[in-house]
Specification:
Blueprint (H helix, E strand, L loop, with lengths): L3 H23 L9 H4 L14 E4 L3 E4 L2 E2 L8 H10 L6 H12 L5 H9 L6 H12 L4 H7 L7 H27 L14 H9 L4 H13 L8 H11 L4 H12 L7 H16 L5 H13 L17 H13 L4 H20 L10 H10 L8 H22 L12 H8 L3
Antiparallel strand pairs: 1-2, 2-3
Helix pairs in contact: 3-18, 4-8, 5-6, 5-8, 6-8, 6-12, 7-8, 8-9, 8-18, 9-10, 10-15, 10-18, 11-12, 11-18, 12-18, 13-16, 13-17, 14-16, 15-17, 16-17
This protein binds N-hydroxyamidocarboxymethyldethia coenzyme *A.
Length: about 425
Amino acid sequence: MASLKEVLAAQVPGIQEEIRNLVKGHGDKVVSEVTIKQVYGGMRGVKGLVCDTSMVDPIDGLIIRGIPLGELFDNYPEEIFYLLCTGKLPEGEEVDLLKANFGQRASIPGYVEDVLRALPKTSHPMAMFITAITALEEQSYFRKRYDEGMTRGEMWEAALEDSLNLLAKLPALAAAVYRIKYDKGDLIPADPNLHMGANFAHMLGNDDPDFYDLLRLYLTLHCDHEGGNVSAFTAHVVGSALSDPYYAVAAGLSGLAGPLHGLANQECLKFIMGIVDKYGGAPTEEQMVEYAWEVLNSGRVVPGYGHAVLRATDPRFTAFHQFGEAHFPDDPIFKTVSTGFKVIPDVLKEHGKAANPYPNVDAGSGALLYYYGITELEFYTVFFSVSRAMGLCSQLIMSRAWWEPITRPKSHTTDWYKDFVGME
Ligand code: HAX
């Protein structure tokens, strides 16, 4: 039985050699051209990044190390992190070893609680969460080892050590933010016998086994989404400066806090509740169509629909929808999500702007959290963050394993681009 670190140690020399040979043998091969539209359009479609942990297929959605997400709906988040890092799922006792490893690292130092309590109650939960992660940076093994003169060959191990500590503590940090911000009473200590999702639910203060399972699913589904999305790209760039994983994850999650990215889950539930309020319960299909057009005609986006890469229903939405159908199909908020799923894609097609008229991960997740009593919408992106940090960390470990250099693309002024195309 091998630990995650031992499995990676066996793989890293092969990864380094593979990349060395690829660059040595094919270094001058052109993989992408860049148009002016892409330069001014968020670099959409420009191939210029490496991400070995996962890829997003426009139709099939997230594929983790060759395994479509649809085949991983029953797995634990700890197993997913192992898969992201190593390309294989842990087997037999490796799973228990991994869960125990996370469990032993799960508690948070007292000073972090003090930091959180010192913040104004009006702070956004994401700002509190990111502050807590930055406060934990004091414990960085990567930074300590760098200061001692660690070689680049040792960096992936230091990144792994920081990642395991940070990921293990994130549910406790998130629960601390929740209980402090919303006056839920004393913090609840981690239970090292529970898996990560259950432990998170437990520390939030809800020991319903169905909620345990929802958080297991939630942490599994949001784990990673290849390398070019705002949070992954940001963490990647910051990590390339050899800032340690605490800094890189705090930076990446600051991007996740944007309404066009992770914060969309908060916006989605606001949208759904706006409909329920307006019609005094779950709307009819006609009412839903009317409401969606009102939003579009006022120049706003329909939250939870569309995606920069996906061109079909997000499998993560499908998993959440199946969970709701199995547990509370008649809940008015969940029913509203279901009705939206039926009619909004056609509205968006008729509207004609969105390249992808189908629901993304954020369209339904909030309705499920709300059902289990998490009624503080602003907190939803923190759930997303606890999970997404697994992708950010595994990508950082991979980058340090193959000695990726500092990221530094070239920028030009608008005058330069105008000259380049011959524009007056
Ligand atoms: N409602 C209305 N209009 C939409 C739309 C939606 N849901 N999705 C896209 N459009 C519009 C865009 O605003 C854009 O309009 P303009 O040309 O006037 O600027 C046009 O359609 C083309 O956009 P696109 O190419 O389809 O989409 P982008 O790659 O530019 O953006 C977004 C992708 C996810 C940001 C976009 O679809 C959106 O704003 N959706 C709603 C917010 C949302 O659900 N975000 C969460 C995404 C998932 C995620 O990252 N979670 O973390």
